[in-house]
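Q: Could you fold this chain for me?
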Amino acid sequence: MNSISAPKLTSSHVSPATILNSDSIRDCITPVILTFNEALNIERTLSHLTWAKQIVVVDSYSTDDTLEILKAYPQVRVFQRRFDTHANQWNYGLSQAQTEWILSLDADYVLTEALVQELSALSAAADSYSVRFQYCIFGQPLRGAILPPRTILFRKDKATYVDDGHTQLLQVNGSTAMLSSYIRHDDRKPLSRWLWAQDRYAILEAQKLRETPLDQLSWNDRIRRYQVIAPLLVLFYCLILRRGILDGRAGWYYAFQRMLAETLLSIHLLSYPSDMRNTLYGKKS
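A: Sure. Below is the predicted structure, expressed as C-alpha cells.
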C-alpha cells in the first residue's frame, strides 16, 4: 500500500470563508473517497470539498488521470491499495482518517451548496447522518430515481463496513438522523465502463441472492429472484411511478440503464445449474 503526498496548501484552493456555528462538527470531518479511474468525475467532487482540512482517497491503482487531478488538491492524502472487497477498502480508508467524523463519498458524489451550508451549522445531535440523492444523467438532475438514502456522515469509532452483495453496508452503533439537503450522484464515465461494472456487480448480487435465505431478503430482492419480473417492473417504476418519462432523454436513458442492470442479474441467475435454481426458489430437487 502506497501513500502519495500532496503539495502544501495554497490559498488558490480555499473557498471563501464560511461562518460556522460555534458547535459545528465540520472542522472535525474527514471526507473519505474510493477511486479507480475516476478522472471524469473526481474533480467535480473535490471542488465542493475545499472546506475540508484533509481528504483521504483510497485509490485502487488508477491508470487514467485520476492521480494527477488529486495532486492539484493539497489537502488530499492518497493511499493506494489493491482492491479486494468494498468493505475492506472502506475500512482501510477509515483507518487513515485522523478526525472524529467521517464523510463517506463515492467519487461521483457532488455536495450541493445547501449541504455544505448544512454541515457548517451541524452539531453532534446524532452518531450518524443519512442523506437523500438527486440522480443526474448527463449532468441533468432527474425528478426521481431508485437510489435510496445512504448514511454518509458518522463518528469513526461508531461504525464499520461489511460486504453486502456487490457493495457494502455500513453498520453504525448509535443514533441516526436525516440531513435535509441532497447529494448529487453525477457519474460521467462512458457506457462501456458502466456495463463492465454492472456485470461484475450482477455476479456478486446473484451470489448473494443464491446464498441468503428467502426470509432474510428484502421484498425487492425477493422479486429479483424471479428473473423475468424485475427488469420489467423497474422500467415501469422509473418511467411512470418516478415520472422519469417527464425528464425526456435523460429519463429514458436512466430507465433503460436500470432495466439493463436487472436484466444482467437475471441472466446470471438463469445461468445457474437447475439444482442451484431450485434452491434459489426454495424448491426441492
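A (continued): The longest helix spans residues 249-270.
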